[in-house]
Write the structure tokens for this entry.
Amino acid sequence: MNEPDIKDVVKEKYGQAALRVTFGGSSCCGASPSNGCAGPISSNLYGEQQTDQIPEEALLASLGCGSPTALAKLNPGEVVLDLGSGGGIDVLLSAKRVGPTGKAYGLDMTDEMLALANENKRKGGTENVEFLKGEIEHVPLPDNSVDVIISNCVINLSADKGQVMREAFRVLRPGGRFAVSDVVTRGEIRPEIRKNVLLWIGCVAGALEESEYVSKLAAAGFEQITLEPTRIYRAADAREFLSSSGIDADAIAPEVDGKFMSAFVRAVKPDAQQS
């Protein structure tokens, strides 16, 4: 698919996810509405200490693959931007971490998700939060305006990941941090296998090989790049979903064993004084 088609598919998927939560239910990567968050990628990402801080609808709307707010170091007074903020779970959690002197922005292109996120903001009584409409390839914020960028399994859905990383670099202040959860691949995967695995989960669509992810960040100007696997998906994980999709899971699952993973990716924009 070309870039406009991919954006349309993502908009439709996330819009439907928001509506399911709004009218009762849950929405998770790769799970049908009746399955809830039982899938191997989106399940059990947030601890009780985090879920107690936010409206239930924010958790139900999560389509993430990690918990960037648990792994990223956020300090009081900092400005945080969540790329592809969905129902707002990571924005609301970040707002509590940076406190009243800081601010948390959420950026999403889906009207339904933005409406849900603003309702979650209202329910949570959180003042230092602002949700913006826009695309992660074209962030509607000025240069050098953000201390930390987070994202939860969204960058891999972009058709132009290099542009996303260049935009992240642009809006970060010198010394600013990139701290995102995303799905990546490891090693060679046959095209026909990758095509079928795209049905496994929306989050896997477009996932970069881990070395390519690092290379794109470096090309955008980032330094101190690290990629830490947080959840490696095994053959059994793929088999569970593929079987329910009418695919020959036994033939495919062994070839994807250990080759797809959620990872926490860190990088730093060089400090102007050091460059």
Observations:
- DSSP finds eleven helices and eight strands in the chain.
- The first strand starts at residue 79 and ends at 83.
- The beta strands are 79-83, 103-108, 129-133, 146-152, 172-185, 208-209, 223-233, 260-268.
- The first helix runs from residue 3 to 22.
